[in-house]
Amino acid sequence: MFGNHFYHATMRKSVAVFGTLFNNLNIVRKSGSNSASSIVKVPLAYGPKQKFLARLDQETGFDQSVALKLPRMAFEITTLALDPNQKLSKLNTIVETHGSDITKKKTIKHFTSYDIGMSLYIMAKNQDDGLQIMEQIIPYFQPDYTVSIKPVEGFDFKQDVPVILEGVTIQDDYEGDLATRRVLIYQLDFTMKMKFYGPTSDVGLIREINIDFEKFGTNNDSNRFEEMDFTVGNTDTESNHTVTVTIDNNPDVD
Known about the structure:
The protein is mainly β. Helices cover 12% and strands 43% of the residues.
């Protein structure tokens, strides 16, 4: 059962899809006249918040030219769990037309549903920056936002992936001396409803059917057995095909 190599990069696609949702956010800095003085794009990177907080703590005066700028966002995978609410029948199969061989179909026989936990961290040095970013996100999650992806390369079917906002927590540490850099952290926890797919295979189509049956006629009927063959041509397609029926009243019956 196991041992046949396949890889659909499902986790990598999940990370890419999640990051794409938040990679184009900006904050607006205003002047005293309440007009926009600058627009700052908020950088986004994959990684735990501790990584970025540690770098902030390590920065000293000699490397301020390459210091980590705030605000910024980070995200990471936190959990992976089977989704019992989307348990699928083991008989479910995905079938598509083969691109180069009309006598075969492309199939995926094994797939299952998992919940991928994602956490998005908004790190800001003042309250207004953090609230601007958060307010550009939460209105779209009611509580979910659905995106469509093509999960398996070589297949045309699309999968809807709900991204559910589970909750928001805010961390604001006031303690520390005047030299300590203040960082506000807004943590948004999400769940992605993702499916994991098994290996793909090519399955041949039934293009010929042979039927042998006994005729229930008179006892003197010399043609007691009959054979009927249904054949579809090797070059015929689903939309353009001819079925040839051959009837033999004197078949060779074993």
